[in-house]
Specification:
Layout lengths: L8 H55 L7 H26 L4 H10 L1 H7 L1 H16 L7 E4 L2 E8 L3 E5 L5 E5 H6 L3 E2 L5 E10 L5 H14 L10 E7 L4 E10 L3 H18 L13
Antiparallel strand pairs: 1-2, 1-5, 2-3, 3-4, 6-8, 7-8
Length: 284
């Protein structure tokens, strides 16, 4: 049997190089797949851990006497803990994928101005959230008007304030609106004034109308005695006179008393023969 001729040395070297390259490619692909799997696991652990830590912080603060009843501080601290874990997890994932965290910090430091301008709105909302937590213009559970929307504060986190309006709709307002804009807080007061205005005709007796208002205020036992109820003429219109009743009530019973007073004023004026004033057009 005739032996097979030997391959030239150059061809042999090419085959060896291809075999080595294939081996390195296989090893690199295996390392990349392993790193991707570990990175995916880190992402899952990060989000799971952020939610777990957020719940632990909230429950821990609910057990502390100093923060047990402060739902605003509990929500803010839980949000801060959640985002902190997310940031740490993101750095860990980048490091696992081979990205040098020191280089990231260097790039961020060099581009701090650009990043600051790009994130100006978000960072201002974070700062506003901290200021809201410190100065407390409103708390969770307060009924407020914020950014032109009225509702009950349900949640305050790093970036936004969540309201639920009287129709049950969710309203999300940036924290910047809650600190830099005008906020009307209807809850953070013990008492509130009720004002009921009623228009009567010029040919009706003003004193009788005012006496009706005073009598209604005297019959309402839920009103506060101080400041005392007040009734008077507040406007002389083109076709009617406006008489007004001003009383004070406890915040918890404000709306019930207001609705009852509106009904009582209408019925009382009808019984006294006082007619409601309407615009009258006079022909020339």
């Amino acid at each position: 049997m005739t032996p097979a001729p030997h391959l030239p040395d150059q061809v042999q070297r090419v085959l060896d190089e291809k075999s080595l390259a294939l081996q390195k490619l296989t090893e690199t692909g295996g390392d990349l797949a392993a790193n991707l799997l570990i990175a995916a696991a880190l992402v899952a652990i990060t989000f799971w851990g952020s939610r777990l830590l957020s719940r632990m912080v909230r429950r821990g603060m609910q057990r502390l006497p100093a923060t047990r009843d402060d739902a605003t501080l509990q929500g803010f601290a839980a949000s801060l803990a959640r985002y902190s874990v997310v940031v740490i997890g993101a750095v860990a994932v980048l490091h696992r994928l081979g990205v040098e965290t020191t280089s990231i910090i260097t790039v961020l430091g060099a581009a701090s101005l650009a990043v600051g301008l790009a994130l100006q709105g978000a960072l201002s909302n974070v700062a506003a959230g901290v200021m809201i937590l410190v100065f407390r213009p409103y708390r969770v559970g307060d009924f407020v008007t914020l950014a032109g929307k009225s509702g009950t504060v349900k949640k305050l986190d790093l970036f936004n304030t969540e309201l639920v309006d009287v129709d049950g709709l969710k309203v999300i307002a940036p924290n910047g609106k809650g600190f830099a804009d005008v906020v009307v807080n209807y809850t953070d007061i013990p008492n509130r004034r009720i004002e009921i205005s009623y228009q009567i005709r010029y040919d009706d007796d003003v004193d009788t109308a005012l006496e009706v208002l005073r009598q209604i205020a005297g019959d309402e036992s839920r009103l506060l005695p101080d400041p005392a109820p007040w009734a008077g003429v507040t406007e002389l219109g083109p076709s009617s006179i406006t008489v007004t009743l001003r009383v004070w009530a406890n915040l918890l019973s404000y709306w019930d008393i207001r609705f009852d007073l509106l009904r009582a004023v209408k019925l009382g004026m009808d019984r006294a023969g006082i007619r409601h004033g309407f615009p009258v057009q006079v022909s020339g």
